[in-house]
Design brief:
355 residues; alpha/beta; Single alpha-helices involved in coiled-coils or other helix-helix interfaces; seven-stranded parallel β-sheet; 16 helices; EC 3.6.5.-; hydrolase
């Protein structure tokens, strides 16, 4: 089954309007007065692979302006038949593991092999100011200049687990623009990894040498999310220890539930500085894709991604509706004061909110 067909099946749970869309001539959008977005132009630009138009389309989707949000969904609906034709790879790792260095080396190699690579880097936002680091383009300077690559830092904006709620839609736009490898980088090992696991096909965990010490502080659940473990910075004097770490992980992984049915999670020693092991990572990704497609689990995982997306958006919408009501906000503040003054228990206050 080709990827366009997979996408049509997977996205059917998100938009009924998507069905049969590929055979229907594209709608002509009316441009509202004072609108800075021409949807026809954006759609053509995205399909042609223009990074400028892709950036504008993502900005439209990320906007909190109600008109922009509506038009962004119209744009996405038109582009849906062009989506799904990629492999989506999540990349995480402990602080200092060198995720950005690995992504730049890995992404550059992929472009040299003829692939188009999109990097969606999940950035932490300040809980006080809402500001974002957005430093990925400075950390991946070579890849950022590569015409076959596209880097988009996405601020988390307080989303649970540090994953921007529009990351999934951004992936679809990148696929519509012809990017056949999507790399989603997370901020580090934590709750965000579980959410990213639910939106990608394959999940890579970057670790450092010295597996015994590192495992003391790493949750078993994180290890069970990984389809591959990249023992990074395996170069120079560190190479012997990296090889030892690979052996330790091989022994340990036998006792863990594999992240993907039919696939055995494996560790690889990689040096992004020297480039050793990077091609082996891509060979493993291709082997993974072939095996999962042959087993039929590829389609199942894509459907699970869509279901997870659907339910997470229901949660976002419920929270938005609840806290978006001005009268409800006042009620919450009053109940908070009564809780803090020991007039009510938390359960009693919640019961009053939902009476």
């Amino acid at each position: 089954m080709d990827r366009d067909k997979q996408s049509r099946q997977v996205m059917s749970g998100v938009s009924d309007a998507h069905d049969g869309m590929k055979s229907v001539p594209r709608k002509k959008f009316k441009k509202p007065a004072n609108s800075q977005f021409d949807l026809d132009e954006l759609a053509r630009g995205v399909e042609s692979g223009s990074r400028l138009h892709l950036g504008k389309a993502i900005t439209l989707l990320e906007s909190t302006n109600p008109e922009h949000k509506q038009r962004g969904q119209q744009l996405l609906n038109v582009l849906l038949p062009k989506t799904g034709n990629s492999i989506r790879i999540g990349i995480t790792g402990v602080p200092g593991a060198g995720k950005s260095t690995f992504i730049e080396t890995f992404g550059t190699m992929l472009t040299e092999l003829g692939h188009r690579v999109a990097v969606l880097a999940i950035d932490p936002s300040s809980s006080r100011t809402g500001g974002s680091i957005l430093g990925d383009k400075t950390r991946m300077e070579e890849l950022a200049r590569n015409p076959q690559a596209f880097i988009r830092p996405s601020p988390t904006a307080g989303t649970l687990g540090g994953v921007h709620k529009k990351t999934r839609e951004t992936m679809l736009l990148c696929e519509a623009a012809g990017y056949d490898v999507i790399l989603v980088e997370t901020v580090g090992v934590g709750q965000s990894e579980t959410l990213v696991r639910g939106m990608v096909d394959m999940f890579l965990l970057l670790v450092l040498t010295g597996a015994g010490d590192e495992l003391q502080g790493m949750k078993k659940g994180i290890l069970e999310l990984a389809d591959a473990m990249i023992v990074h910075k395996a170069d120079r004097d560190n190479l012997p220890l990296a090889k030892k770490t690979v052996r330790e992980y091989k022994q340990m992984l036998h006792f863990l539930q594999p992240a993907t049915d039919g696939w055995t999670t494996r560790p690889l020693a990689v040096s992004s500085v020297e480039g050793s092991g990077v091609r082996e990572v891509w060979d493993m990704v291709q082997e993974f894709e072939q095996l999962v497609k042959e087993s039929g689990y590829w389609d199942t995982r894509r459907q699970e991604q869509t279901q997870d997306w659907f339910h997470s958006m229901i949660t976002d919408e419920l929270l938005g509706c609840f806290y978006g009501d001005a009268q409800r906000k006042q009620q919450v503040k009053k109940l908070e004061q009564r809780i803090l003054s020991d007039e009510l228990t938390v359960s009693q206050a919640v019961a009053q909110l939902f009476e």
